[in-house]
Amino acid sequence: RRRKNRGSLRQGRPAPPEPQRRAAAVLCFTRLHTAAYPGPYLPPSRVQRTTLFLALPRLVVDQDPDREICYDSSPPPVCSSPSFSALRDKGRNPQGMEGGGGIMASAATGAMSSLLAKLAELLGEDCYQNQMQRGTRREVAFLRDELSSMNALLERLADAGAAAPLDPQTREWRDQVREMSYDVEDCVDEYMGQLRRRSGGGGGGVVGLVLGYVGRVREMVSRRGIAEQIQELRARVVEAGHRRKRYKIDAAASPSGAGVVPVDRRLPALYAELGGLVGVHGPRDELVRLLDDGEERIKVVSVVGAGGLGKTTLANQVYRNIGDRFDCKSFVSLSQNPDIGMIFRTMLSQVKKDEPELTGSGDMEQLINELRDFLQDKRYLIVIDDVWSTQAWKIIKCAFGENTCGSRIIVTTRIGTVAKSCSSPDSDLVYELKALSEDYSKMLFFRRIFGSEDKCPHQLKEVSVEIVKKCGGLPLAIITMASLLTTKSDTREEWMKVCGSIGFGLEKNSDVEEMNMILSLSYNDLPHHLRTCLLYMSMFPEDYVIKRDYLVRRWIAEGFIKVFGGRTLEEEGECYFNELINRSLIQAVDFQYDGRVYACRVHDLVLDLIVSKAVEDNFVTIVTDKRQVLRPQGKVHRLSSDCTNAENMLTCSKAVAHVRSLNMFRYSERMPPLLNFRSLRVLDLDGNEDLESCYLKDIGKLFQLRYLRIRASNNITLPEQIGELQLLVILNLLNCYDISELPSSIAKLRNLKWLLAHRVKLPNGVCNMQALESVSLVVVDYTTPVTALQELGSLTKLRSLGLDWRISDAHKDKMTYADNLVSSLGKLGTSNLRSLTLISPWSLDFLLDSWCPPPHHLQELTIKGWCLRKIPVWMASLANLTYLDIEVEVAQETVQVLADFPVLQFLKSYSNAAGPQERCLIVDNNGFPCLKKLNFVHWTNLMFLEGAMPMLEALEFQIIVHEVKTACGFGSPPDLGIRHLSALRNLAVNIYCECARVEEVEALEAAIQVAVSMLPNSPTPTLHRFREPEMLADDAEQ
């Protein structure tokens, strides 16, 4: 070693003997080797020795052998380039999470899209360029170019596979390339993580120096390992490219000119006899009434419904029933890629059946003109079956000119938006075909197998009913299951196997394949990103009710959403969700006040289809306690576990290193530790009553984690290491009711957008979390630092906030807290705040007039727990408010203020009346112009004048019977004006019976029934009696 400056370092002491210096060097080497290669100590290899000695610092050994080794006091070199701060910021913005983010993953291309974005980032950002070696840059550039070409081919193969099955050789190449994309991305993620971590120093002092040098050693070792991985992956990419050329894979993605014309699977529906159909009479007669109404203008009625629901059968029955009433008629069926010319020729041949020699054979324009000329003065009936796009309809409708002969057109489609675009615009004639009722479903099922339900063997009745329920009223599914069961023996065990296989994609025969082909038409018509989102829903168990916002956040975390047109990721995700409902692939089960779908489920037969496709593509792996376990083909990428079975858990445990998404519906002690899931991006621990805090101890080491949701009923705590999850975007603890405080390290999560919990204390240092967009529900009490409230106002991206205010009036610093809250709310209100929830058992009257300027962007407001004396002035100015849930002392003036909100759609208001003089409140005409749902829970009566609440669809209020006659000043029974609510669909009335006579209560109920019967939608009212035992007998005196 060089001796320069060694004297000064030893402060003038003599140099130690050579043996001591050698011993110290060996000791230093051993410690560095142990730090760089954790685990049992083994003698270092030649490569390790070379790498470690290159990193050894200059050291000085004291003469005292017991003294610690002293390192050179000069700090390790740290790059001073400004690109390092940018590099650290890169780590806080995971791919696809920002407004311009692209799709990170898809079922068609694996991780290609995400991988290509990361390779482009490595090559395009100076902060990475400055650290990459020249050879590495060349390798990254090669991977980007080669994989980009393969990505385009994978997309073409996905389209080709939707039109016709790929040959086995092409499928094998496709699967290998998709798997390779995941492996390359894992390597790139590790490399980018190293570059980010390299930007940090080792700290100060001797410890900092040691850590710095150890980090450099580890970095050199891991860099060498990654370089070797890149070389291996490059070789795999090159070989995949050679196989692509050798086996002519590109040819498989090109549409072939000639091919066998497939049999139209709708033909059986066209020839079905009425006697063999079930439940068709009601829909047929209703559709006939829509068509045969005496209107002379041409009318277009759309029939919309899921595949296999019987749209073609229904249209054909109507066609047969009323076809003879028209001068001419035609029934044509389209396809996803229709030959419009052939469609027009078929129409001409059918409407001109008595003049075949006149049938046209010219170009499109000639065919359209010939049809228009022929139909101009005819009363015609046209059925256009299975329309898939508005573009096809726009061309076809050119053949139908306007006439006043009473002509009718029926269009069937699976897509809601297509149905609306086809129907007559002035009437919006869209007939939504419903599923069969349970009685009709059983009738069809038993008729197909046994002839009637009476002939069903007793041991098969229970399982038969269960199978019918799983078919969900879908005639195609019922007929398919019945046909399948005719091939099985009449034993309960055999039928139970079939029942258990529904939703797991396991039972196969020709009838099931036929049904899947029909259902697959809707799947194949989806664009790539929607296919991915639909396949992802195979991770949820059958009959699982999936909330929209929960599902959209999962899609965001997985990287399935690409933003267009300035929308946010959540808005774009909701568009995806609505499109799947629009295409009848998922079923809406609950709606919000504004008509938006709140939750959905997947039909069991659609689930069966997407499970089989997800497993075939190795997109999702499902492990359950049932006899059937879906084993993966190769590596596991997304794992859905609903199992405690030891054998199945062992199968699951063997292949978790590459899992990117884990959905655990039941916790098991046999579940592999989280440390085994090194590539995890999404972790959803759902319904885990036995989940233990110790299972989460290593969660801070899941550096790629973007989504964390925990649903546990027992007492668990989050580890402090959660602050290490720098890519975490969504933290959902809403169902962890025992978590009242978050780790202090939560403030380190600079990329966190959603912080959702059930009453946790507002974390200190929240100002560091500038990406936050949604926070709920956080507690502000006397232990909350005032600075935390002040910091809250700096979160300018916050769109949704929920606060539980627990500062009592008696608290000495109450006004300090209140002033800071008002100040922060004022700042948020002028930024992006759209939704605010305030819950408090203590007075919130300080908010009455102090919020300035008002939060004009606010759309949803909830104030609960404390009854306000009046509507605040600032609240009355909220022109964008659509949702209001408030406790307020109600008076006629209050009703008038509420009625003036221009776009309010939902109102829930409750408290006692302001005084005895306010026992009947009147809603006058033009009040509440946009209100759709009203829940008015007050000890007062409510009356509606003509023209009030023109859009109200749902109403719940209460009537105090012994006061309503006097208070409202009308006769007996009183007229409450319910008959004026022309849009009403749902009515619930709580009738307070105390001190009222029985005949008065009965007369009031009868009057409500009469008023409701006069409404256009004929709602069925729900009437609840309260304090019924306190009613007066008929002969009692008031």
UniProtKB/TrEMBL annotation:
Domain Disease resistance R13L4/SHOC-2-like LRR: start-end pairs: 658-1020
Disease resistance protein winged helix domain boundaries: 539-610
InterPro entries linked: Apaf_helical, Disease_R_plants, LRR_dom_sf, LRR_R13L4/SHOC2-like, NB-ARC, P-loop_NTPase, RX-like_CC, Rx_N
Domain Disease resistance N-terminal: 111-199
Record family assignment: Belongs to the disease resistance NB-LRR family.
Name by which UniProt lists this protein: AAA+ ATPase domain-containing protein
Region (Disordered): 1-21
Superkingdom in the source lineage: Eukaryota
Chain ranges of the NB-ARC domain: 287-450
Keywords: Coiled coil, Leucine-rich repeat, Nucleotide-binding, Plant defense, Repeat
A molecular function GO annotation: ADP binding
One BP term from GO: plant-type hypersensitive response
Higher taxonomy: Eukaryota, Viridiplantae, Streptophyta, Embryophyta, Tracheophyta
